[in-house]
Specification:
This is Ureidoglycolate lyase. Keywords: Lyase, Purine metabolism. GO terms for molecular function: ureidoglycolate hydrolase activity; ureidoglycolate lyase activity. It is an enzyme of class 4 (lyase). It is built from two helices and 16 strands. It is mainly β. It has one domain: Ureidoglycolate hydrolase (Jelly Rolls). It has a ten-stranded mixed beta sheet with strand order 1-16-7-6-5-4-14-9-12-3.
Length: 231
């Protein structure tokens, strides 16, 4: 089998049907307000989509010979609309910058989730995976008003559910995420939300499947009243 075909077959399914996912215990993630101080190390609040240059990470060398200066970081960035929409109990998203779409999670256990209508209060998101981009940062800037929540963990492959923190934004400002920071895009509180997105063009992705690795989903509150002032 050609390597390209094998790689495609091995790629994770990023939009699983709820019926194919197991019910699992939930691990509740702390929710804090998205402030510059709270986001330090994870990313930055931005006031304009061009206020922050996307960091591009130089391609690593494979041995003792070093990558030559001025090379290995020339892929640049790609950009486009990143749209999020609730379909009943299911949160779906589409990233036009990389031509991909996703199921981010559910408001209830998968066995109870309906896509044709909402059956559970929209008070939490059960996340089933996260990922990071080793090749560059990622920028989100809202194209409409409304609150949103993003769930992040600091760089490093040895994560646990306790590594994650959720950040509540009232809207009006954007978010820049540093390279290597774990995330799974954003979660709108309203029915739908559109962002302008910009990120590294290579779009390397390293992921973690929470049910497979940790036997749980991450439960992220979407309620403003649950957001603490500090970590």
């Amino acid at each position: 089998m050609p390597d390209a075909i094998a790689a495609t077959l091995a790629a994770p399914n990023l939009k699983p049907l709820a019926a194919t996912m197991p019910d699992m215990p939930v691990h509740r993630v702390p929710l804090v307000k998205a402030t510059a101080a709270n986001l330090r190390g994870f990313g930055e609040i931005i006031e304009h989509p061009d206020a922050r240059k996307v960091e591009i990470v130089r391609w690593p060398s494979l041995g003792w010979r070093q990558v030559e200066p001025g090379t290995g970081d020339q892929g640049g960035t790609t950009e486009g609309m990143f749209a999020f929409k609730w379909h009943g109990d299911v949160l779906r998203a589409r990233n036009e910058a990389v031509n991909d779409d996703y199921v981010l999670g559910w408001t209830c256990q998968p066995s109870q989730a309906r896509e044709d209508r909402q059956t559970a209060p929209r008070e939490e998101l059960l996340l089933w995976r996260c990922n990071y981009h080793p090749d560059g940062g990622q920028l989100f800037f809202p194209l409409e008003p409304g609150p949103f929540v993003t769930t992040l963990a600091l760089p490093g492959d040895d994560i646990t559910p306790d590594s994650f923190v959720a950040f509540y934004s009232e809207g009006g400002t954007g978010l820049y995420i540093h390279p290597g920071v774990w995330h799974e895009a954003l979660c709108p509180v309203n029915d739908s939300f559109r962002f302008f997105g910009r990120q590294g063009k290579v779009h390397a992705r390293v992921g973690s499947n929470f049910p497979q690795e940790f036997g749980c989903y991450l439960s992220v509150s979407l309620r403003a009243e649950d957001a603490r002032e500090t970590l």
